[in-house]
Amino acid sequence: MLNYDLVVVGGGPAGMAAALKAKECGVDSIIVLERAETLGGILEQCIHTGFGLHYFGEELSGPEYAAKFIDQLKGTDIVVKTDTMVLDIDDDKVVTAVNKKDGLLKINAKAIVLAMGCRERPRGALEIAGSRASGIMTAGTAQKYVNLDGYMPGKKVVILGSGDIGLIMARRMTLEGAQVKVVCELMPYSGGLTRNIVQCLDDFGIPLRLSTTVVETHGTDRLEGVTIAQVDDKLQPIESTKEYIECDTLMLSVGLIPENELTKNVGIGIDRITNGAVVDEMRQTDHKGIFACGNVLHVHDLVDYVTLEAQIAGQGAAEFILGGDKDAVYVTPETGNGVRYLVPQRVNINNKNEVKLYFRVGQIYKNAKVVLECDGKVISSKKKVKLAPGEMENVVIPADILAGMTPDSSIVVRVEE
């Protein structure tokens, strides 16, 4: 049995930032467990730029962003074990992991930070008719083939889903000489950042068809084409709009799912909208001493926000380790009109600092207001030119407002058109 003050599960941007923050806050013994052979997580295959604008104030590629944190880790005594798979976490915060060098590991932790990231939704989760022909893959898999392995997945491409990975791969495949025929999106709005729609589709003349999906794939050994169709307001295909498109590759960018199998096994409460843990403002779950951050908590649009959230979790874990469990009085923020979810899902009114609530809207709004209401009083009302489901928003509850709350207080975030 190994003993560490803090065990961080995941060595991506969230795990590294949480570990470094905890170390900065005075935690002595920290270990980071990463199942891949290298640190950095998904950033290692994201060779495009656009990272770090908020956090570092400069435009970086994914590997460059990761390298800054990897270098910081090397300058500390934080223990890192890569190629290590965490199998289980029990109620006593004992982490069971395995790797080729050490075999089976049992690690007793005072606190744990969950930073396992997320995975792509696969074809099996979609109702698309057709055989299991080669050439159908997630956009992230295609990204790994092209950027890390040096393989070209195909020459004629259709992309289903307009998430950021799909948009970025539309540009990447075009730059590598492929013909990206169309990006289809089931919803009437894009799931990606506006900047990616402009830079990855508009700049390359790649059409984006909203309210359109793939209903059938053709080909047995290799994909030969797909049938697409527009959908009605109930998201059902419209028969008269079916259209055949010849292609040898179908890339799926149809959503990300937080990797929460470990979280569920511990018995931690899960938010049904985010598919991540229910946490407080320090990102502590309903199991004391276990924290969650990054894309395992809720899917972020920018890695800069992942880093900032991970630092909150790292600080929270440090305070728990060094100061023990403190009395907390929680108020549960409520989603109002247009708001799909809020993170954190509960706020300690004994907290002496302001609290930032992150959220996403359920549809596109133009020239709308984001309103924060506490105990029936409007605390802030901020006008936004555009609100979109693909872009994360936030509101801030000032410290003095929290100080005046009681256990029966209410916090509501809503959109006013």
Protein architecture, described:
This protein is of the alpha/beta class and 417 residues long. The chain has 3 domains: 1-120 and 255-325, FAD/NAD(P)-binding domain, CATH 3.50.50.60; 122-254, 3-Layer(bba) Sandwich (FAD/NAD(P)-binding domain); 327-417, Immunoglobulins (Immunoglobulin-like), CATH 2.60.40. Helix content is 21%, strand content 34%. It has helices at 13-24, 62-74, 139-149, 164-175, 194-201, 261-266, 303-323, 399-403, and strands spanning 2-9, 30-33, 49-51, 60-61, 79-81, 85-89, 94-99, 103-114, 118-120, 136-138, 156-160, 179-185, 208-210, 212-218, 225-230, 243-246, 249-252, 256-258, 290-292, 330-331, 334-335, 339-343, 347-348, 355-361, 365-374, 377-387, 393-397, 411-416. Helix 1 runs parallel beside helix 2 (62-74), helix 1 packs parallel to helix 7 (303-323) and helix 3 crosses helix 4 (164-175).
